[in-house]
Every structure is written in C-alpha cells, then in structure tokens.
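Tokens in:
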C-alpha cells in the first residue's frame, strides 16, 4: 500500500499524488459513511489515503484502488444539492478558506456568507472574505461592501476588496495563502479561477469568457482540484456553489456555530435557548443594543426554520 493525497476528484475517479509526485488515477470500492450519513463523495480533495496499485487492466498506465482514508483534521461539508439525504464534502484537511463574493454580478445570495461560515465554524477554520470585481464597484456598491465588512470583521473574519481584472489586492492574497492549504470557494462566476490565475499565472485555469457570460447558470470549474504553488502553498479551486442547505444539522448546531450568538448565549435564561421567543434571551438583547447584526440574525432564523420544516415533513411522511 502507498500513501497519497487526493488532488482531484471527478466523481468516480480520484487523482492521488504519491510522495514522489507521481499521480495515480484511483477508484474507490464499497460504501463509505460519515457519522451514519451517506456521502455523494466518500473522499474529497485534501484527503490522505492509502492506495493499492492495480496492474494488468486496460487503463493506460497505472491505476489504483483507495483502501483507506486517514483521519481528517477537518472538512467542509454540506447537504448534497442533488440528493437531499446525502452529504457532500467540499474539501478536507484545509488550513483556511477564501470565500470569494462580489457585490455586483453574480448577485450575492441572501445569507450566502452566513451559510458558508456555518460549514467552517464547527472546525474553527479561518475564513477570509474577498469581495472581487472591485474595479466595477460604484459608490453604492462600496457602501454595501463597508456595511458587510463591518459585520464580518467585528466577529473575526477579515474582508478584502480585489480585482482579478485589474490585478488589485493580489499581493495581499498572496501573503494570506503563503505556506498554507487554502480552499477557494464561492458562488459561480465571482472570479475564483480568475483570481487564482493572478495569484499564480502558470495555472492557466479555465475562466468564463466575457462573450459567453450570461450572468447565470453554467459552472466553468466543474471539479475541485488542488494545485501545488511551491513553498508549502496549496490551493483548491472548486466549482461554484449554488445553494447551501443544512438538513443534516439540528437547530442547536446552528445556534452554536453562529459564533457571536454562542458567546452571548451563556447569558440566556435557558441553556437550550434558540433565541426566538424565549424570555431573557441575551442574543435578542444584544441585537436590540446593536451589538449583534440583524442581518445575521435574520439569516439564522431562516436557516433554522428550513431545518425545522424539513424535520416536520420527515416525521409526518409515510415514506
Ligand atoms: N470586472 C471584473 N470581472 C471579473 C473579475 N474577475 C473575474 N471576472 C469575470 O467574471 C467571470 C467569471 O470568472 P471565473 O473566474 O470563471 O469565475 P469562477 O468563480 O471561477 O466561476 P465557476 O468556475 O463557474 O465557479 C469572467 O467573465 C471573468 O472575466 C474582476 O475582478 N472584475
Ligand atoms: Mg472557476
Ligand atoms: Zn437566547
């Protein structure tokens, strides 16, 4: 058996990089679960695995079979967008994430940043929020940026403006990623691959042509892939995210992972306070005092109500 790192996952095949740099296309046999849940992808980019080399098949060159997944230090997981009872791992064993957003096109989905943070917060994965396409921001757009920046900086997430088009903010991003393994994520079309091409021009990643840009649909990057930029710097480009739902979570999981809510909740009257209608709720007090963002609170309520609706229908369904 040989040890390797998953650097690309295309569905049924995984590219595994061995110690010496050799890349072996591998398959996985059998079903794997995580905490009793089914997974659409049992291994993800960033996973360390043990493989057995196969010989004598009709595949060109050598292939392998993934036999074992090493323990993960963390992973980023969500409900599968296509199969709601399955989970999908975006990446494993990362040091941090760059969440790329923009206040122009494509429109920032309501609650998107908070939903993303709900995936990274359980493992305290640091997140930097990068507002790209700064070259086309109007004063009004800049005001939106300032508004969001204040909210997220105040709870410990750094925010930046960048422009892949005008090559701005790139040096700062280069410093952030140096020596680390970073997941690059965000909605489709925000400029993830464009930014990566600026960070490391040799990558020559495919990006969306302006001519074919319709403002919606169409993912340009279709598989997650890890790139070695040298000096212990690794980045993972990933396909755009359309929706983030969390039916695998309980209401209390959400409450615990809105970190400023959790910090305040020690002062709530009830230990299992969901910060809705309970009396003497410290979170609601802080919102009233302007110390907790109403925007975050609204998104929190939306997420927990989705989870409760889902649980309700599951309990009352015949199937
Ligand atoms: N004005 C402007 N346009 C940009 C900038 N960065 C990227 N774009 C454009 O935005 C479009 C999408 O860029 P991509 O880099 O393909 O976006 P992506 O986030 O990788 O998209 P997916 O791979 O589908 O998830 C392209 O037409 C880019 O030219 C920027 O800083 N400013
Ligand atoms: Mg892309
Ligand atoms: Zn409360």
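Residues out:
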């Amino acid at each position: 058996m040989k040890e390797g790192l998953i650097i690309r996952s295309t569905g049924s095949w995984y590219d595994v990089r061995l110690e010496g740099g050799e890349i072996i296309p591998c398959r996985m046999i059998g079903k794997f679960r995580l905490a009793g849940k089914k997974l659409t992808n049992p291994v993800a980019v960033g996973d360390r695995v043990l493989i057995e080399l196969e010989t004598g098949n009709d595949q060109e060159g050598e292939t392998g079979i993934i036999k074992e997944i090493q323990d993960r230090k963390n992973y980023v997981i969500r409900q599968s967008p296509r199969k709601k009872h399955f989970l999908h791992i975006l990446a494993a064993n990362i040091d941090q994430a760059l969440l790329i957003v923009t206040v122009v096109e494509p429109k920032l989905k309501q609650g998107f940043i908070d939903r993303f943070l709900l995936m990274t917060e359980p493992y305290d994965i640091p997140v930097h929020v990068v507002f790209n396409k700064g070259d086309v921001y109007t004063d009004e757009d800049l005001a939106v940026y300032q508004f969001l920046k204040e909210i997220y900086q105040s709870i410990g997430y750094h925010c930046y403006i960048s422009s892949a088009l005008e090559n701005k903010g790139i040096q700062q991003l280069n410093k952030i990623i140096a020596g680390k393994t970073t997941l690059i994520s965000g909605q489709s079309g925000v400029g993830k691959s464009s930014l990566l091409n600026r960070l490391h021009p040799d990558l020559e990643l495919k990006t969306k042509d302006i001519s074919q840009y319709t403002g919606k649909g169409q993912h340009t990057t279709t598989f997650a892939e890890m790139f070695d930029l040298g000096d212990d710097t690794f980045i993972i480009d990933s396909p755009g995210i359309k929706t983030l739902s969390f039916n695998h979570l309980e209401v209390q999981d959400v409450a615990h992972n809105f970190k400023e809510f959790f910090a305040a909740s020690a002062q709530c009257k009830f230990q299992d306070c969901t910060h809705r209608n309970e009396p003497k709720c410290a979170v609601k007090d802080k919102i009233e005092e302007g110390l907790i963002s109403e925007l975050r609170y609204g998104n929190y309520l939306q997420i927990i109500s989705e989870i409760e609706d889902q649980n309700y229908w599951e309990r009352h369904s015949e199937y």
